[in-house]
Amino acid sequence: MRTSIATVCLSGTLDEKLQAAAQAGFDGVEIFEQDLTVSPDSPEVIAARAADLGLSLDLFQPFRDFEGVDEAQFEANLRRAEAKFRLMGRLGMDTILLCSNVGTATIDDDEVVVEQLRRLGDLAERYDIDVAYEALAWGRYVSEYDRAWDLVRAADHPRIGTCLDSFHILSRGTDLSRIAEIPGEKIFFLQLADAPALSMDVLSWSRHHRVFPGEGSWDLTDFLARVTATGYAGPVSLEVFNDSFRQADTQRTAVDGLRSLRWLEANVAAAHVDSDQVRLDLQTLPQVAEPRGVDYIELDTDDLGALTRQIHQLGFRFVGFHRTKPHVQLWRRGQARIVVTESADIDPVSVDPDSAVPADATAAPAPASAVAPAPVSSGTHLRGIGFAVADADSAMERATLLQATEVPRDQAHDEEVLRGVFAPDGSEVFFGSGTGVDPTWTDEFGTVPDDRRSAIDHVNLAQPAHHYDEAVLFYTSLLALHAQVSNDVPSPSGLIRSQVMASSDGAIRMPLNLAPRSAESPETGSYPEHVAIACDDIFTAAATAVSRGLDFLPVPENYYEDLEARFDLAPELLQRLRENNILYDRDDVGEFLHFYTSTIGSVFFEMVERRGDYQGYGAPNAPVRLAAQHRRNAGH
Amino acid sequence: MRTSIATVCLSGTLDEKLQAAAQAGFDGVEIFEQDLTVSPDSPEVIAARAADLGLSLDLFQPFRDFEGVDEAQFEANLRRAEAKFRLMGRLGMDTILLCSNVGTATIDDDEVVVEQLRRLGDLAERYDIDVAYEALAWGRYVSEYDRAWDLVRAADHPRIGTCLDSFHILSRGTDLSRIAEIPGEKIFFLQLADAPALSMDVLSWSRHHRVFPGEGSWDLTDFLARVTATGYAGPVSLEVFNDSFRQADTQRTAVDGLRSLRWLEANVAAAHVDSDQVRLDLQTLPQVAEPRGVDYIELDTDDLGALTRQIHQLGFRFVGFHRTKPHVQLWRRGQARIVVTESADIDPVSVDPDSAVPADATAAPAPASAVAPAPVSSGTHLRGIGFAVADADSAMERATLLQATEVPRDQAHDEEVLRGVFAPDGSEVFFGSGTGVDPTWTDEFGTVPDDRRSAIDHVNLAQPAHHYDEAVLFYTSLLALHAQVSNDVPSPSGLIRSQVMASSDGAIRMPLNLAPRSAESPETGSYPEHVAIACDDIFTAAATAVSRGLDFLPVPENYYEDLEARFDLAPELLQRLRENNILYDRDDVGEFLHFYTSTIGSVFFEMVERRGDYQGYGAPNAPVRLAAQHRRNAGH
């Protein structure tokens, strides 16, 4: 499958966009005309640059407001088209996108439109150019893909075909069955975008909120499979207008985009499109199942005493030092394992985020997988998560094919090989094959039996601005996790966007949080992350913590009074909650009891007990936690 | 008129919100229940704190999902209500907001709802509490204000009244005429919010995009006048859910809010509400007319040589040094005047943004007008704008009553007194009474006659994040400017939100720009501002600039080729544009020709020639400028 990306998806100059697309591994690009207009490079220079980078220039776009006009206007439009055809000749391009008329159409008459398309085709023929006619969702008279196809079919001109764009089609909820009527060779171009489910005018939705496939709510696997079945053999191209992408790092966005296409391609390949028409060569990926659970959490710390004291207060037992790395310790509480690494001993240049991108980017492009992750914060912080997967080698191979950057790590010859990649937030994702209760890598630390029913319940990760959507696709495509509905949590310094990535059985639960960049905390990195431990008796856990002197995050009395008004709790239960700073939530299927610790560096802990079939995270209590943390930060 | 604000409008803790409301000068607050729930202070402590601050606690809110339910649910709801009534007693509060049922209503029957409201009234009576019933725009069965009023009237209970909220009413476009049917004493509360015209689901619109009166698109003067005419005598309160306000400085948002109410109050007072029912005591403000023009621009610079060279290249003439301040110079080009101040000579502590807020805020609150503006950037930057107004004293008095902070400035006894205030971006706004061609203050610099037809065409200001809406209200309320439609301009590092504030005759034009906080330029302050000079012959101006060696911002050849395709320009004109880096735009009523200079510090210049009745700013050319500036910043 040939991959392409519209330059409008990316930030930066046209030259930066071309470089980024090539480095990520795209086969071609769509040239968004404005990017060319504002560029100081001539069309010939741009064409040569693309050729040097190994990129084809797949589509010149957009050409607007052409058809359905009176003859005088039409003549002027033909002159405009001819100027663009000449320009395309200088670029060596052969396909132009024609959007259905939004601004100037006055004639809603198929015969007129068909005749005007045909005359455009005659002109295009002279310049050896193909015209891909697309129905914009907000076109004045032509806004549905099947109407555009009917017009193209009626024009019956070898230079006039149609362009299918998933945004314009899926945003209108049009019946997709007529895609099958279009012969693949009359689909001159295919553009893909996903989008979150939003209820707003389609123009704003399109211009600001499109995302890459897998980052929104649409079934693009089905869509691409339908187009594939027509025999379409051209590029599969991303056209995404997104406010965040426009601000984000060019190279990262390009890698994110290519990942979305590789993932989608493999999905379609796995769907076994049942047609002898299929002419796209679809590459597969090693399939991975959802992780069975969290194998371990790894924390780096420059305050080993405080951190290990706190996890001990939470009932963790010390297993041992790593047999060859004395700065690394393992702690466990049932099946919850925490690897603690004292960062003073870490080689400070074990990862150099800048070293991977060559200074002279005109030299041979670095492999896309070398894109630098965001640097993680110093001090005590969450370094990574080990996932228990069925086949670690397949998971790693899939991750690499999906452009993830491998974490460099030394292993002694007799140690278990744990391989992993960087997540978009700079944390590390490791693939462990650990089967059974105690994974074999734990032998390197010694043995401490622990049959308590306890495990990692969830890990709450802070995401850097502009890379939230990338994170959703990353965990979806690499780990087969599912994005749950996103919501906003009020904090004293703004709304926090929160979205849970989870496995079907709840063994993996990871809320991703995007904190506002307020005046108070301009660095998103200052938003703390946390590890939640599941236990089967929160009161026993709290009693242990109290006896060991845990610094609980305090819960205000007003909260318990409101709890009393909301739920008909037994006074004894209410009193026990109050005494232990335990929060409470309930829904139709169960209950949730939890308490929080103070924050060390950028990490804190939560102890949770789930009763019944409760699947949430105590969302109504999140503002209580955020306000308490805000007061502590402010030193109140 | 008694002013109030809902705590949900503001960032921070409840205590910080109360302090900010009091310091801004509000008479009272609405307590948003969640702010209380997450607070460590008991209701009694909060009540005492509010009393110390001189704030009344006007409304406890919200109480939800009460009416239209079956009897079992209703009993539970009454218990919930009673808990809240007891809590209100501890707070010393007497009015609660009841929102129409969104979640649990199953019975759409007026008789049931009326009976349930009446029974709630009986319970409220025992606690001496008034219930203000409000139709939420997305209420399940009750979503219109007049339906809520019909139910309240039918309940006919002294403890049951209605709450009018401009958002819920104006967002639905409901006919406002029935407001006049409601007796003022049955309106138990009044909440105001403005909103931009958006086409999205009303719940998201309400929860994220409300703004203060004067910052959106609705006619709240008319709305408030209608409510005033009913005899309503209670507080006029702001209830605004806004993502930016939640992140912004608490104190600044509070001042912005009070400004909106003072401005609205004066508008209603000036509208002479014609009813003997009016019981609100409406304060007026000194009226101001739109400014006649820009009197002068003041630039601070640490690179006097580069800056004065550039304005000389643009045809400015040196008028002289200020007669007592040798570090201040005046330059002019016709009626365009630029005061240049060499910043090395400026007292670096003439404004201390932090000094105005007392460290111990429990002491007597500082006057609201002492809120610190954002500090301006160093280097060459736009320090302020002098506006030619009809009555400078009235303008200054109005500005002060609207909570603006006066700029401290020394005047010698024989110098003209120019007074001014800080704008939200930290720049200075001065009110000059200068009548005739040469304002009298210019005598302090000497006299250089200059009858060229040239003036300040527009000034393009960068706005800090979170204070964009505040700026719109600031210029609207202080200077009687009008906000034009906002739009987004694509740049290589993201979309730039742009909104023009202008006077009706175009003598004042100020595009406000909000730049994205990209990875590349995390500080919004790095987005440059510019001063555009109007001339009547752009080619002569360009020729002068060329002969004097101006560093033009270069315009790419691709732009001129696109211009050729878009407009049928004479080849000679196109060639002259190309040779001088002049950009071109045209609409139905005129033409616009303009060129840009390089940037010095955070300022650059534009020379413009308007032909015919062209009123725009060459918006299609903005991406060309932004890309060229991006390349220069990146050193390409």
Concise structural overview:
Chains A, B: Keywords: Carbohydrate metabolism, Isomerase, Lyase, Metal-binding. By secondary structure, the first copy, chain A, is an alpha/beta fold.
Descriptive account of the structure:
With 636 residues, chain A is of the alpha/beta class. Chain A folds into 2 domains: 3-270, Alpha-Beta Barrel (TIM Barrel); 293-633, Roll (2,3-Dihydroxybiphenyl 1,2-Dioxygenase, domain 1). Chain A is 31% helix and 23% strand. Chain A is built from 18 helices and 24 strands. In chain A, the strands form 3 sheets. In chain A, strands 16, 17, 18, 19, 20, 21, 22, 23 and 24 form a 9-stranded mixed sheet that branches. An 8-stranded parallel β-barrel of chain A has the order 1-2-3-4-5-6-7-8, surrounded by 7 helices. In chain A, helix 1 links the parallel strand 1 (3-6) and strand 2. In chain A, helix 1 packs across helix 11. The longest helix of chain A is centred in the N-terminal third of the chain and has 21 residues, at 71-91. Chain A is elongated. The first copy, chain A, starts with a strand and ends with a helix. The model of chain A is unreliable at 345-376 and 519-525 (pLDDT under 50). At the A-B interface, helix 2, helix 4, helix 8, helix 10 and helix 16 of A face helix 2, helix 4, helix 8, helix 10 and helix 16 of B. Chains A, B: A divalent metal cation binds at residues 134, 165, 191, 239. Chains A, B: Keywords: Carbohydrate metabolism, Isomerase, Lyase, Metal-binding. Chains A, B: Its cofactor is a divalent metal cation.
